[in-house]
Design goal:
It is a single chain. With about 130 residues, the protein is an all-alpha fold. The protein has 2 domains: about 50 residues, no CATH class; about 70 residues, AhpD-like (Up-down Bundle). Helix content is about 75%, strand content about 0%.
Length: about 130
Amino acid sequence: MSDSAFDDNERFLAGLALRKQVLGESHVERSMTAALDDPFLRPIQQMTVEFGWGQVWNRPGLPLKVRSFLSVAFLAALGKHAELRTHIRGALNNGATPEELSEVLLQAAVYCGMPVGLECFRIAKEVLDERPTE
């Protein structure tokens, strides 16, 4: 992204690398390309990468898998299904097992309600079914 309209500072570059590691190169490239093509989207991608991924996700206080669990739980609570799907994939990329994700979603269902829990389990099942078998 060095020839981009983004401010490629050190925190941005670290965040971009971590975001690709967690969410996958193709997902991040699609988001970044869309922002390059649209000046309206550039500032939110800059902030997402630099602050969210470069500053917060890169902190040493929690392992990436735990950060993924928190993100999954928060997105479930907020009903942000597109981002939830992305972060379930990210949690799996960070070493989460289907059993651990089930526990996170059960915990969320207790506090967010059963309809939320049921929908989140459906989304997680779709993501798990999309993954290649080993």
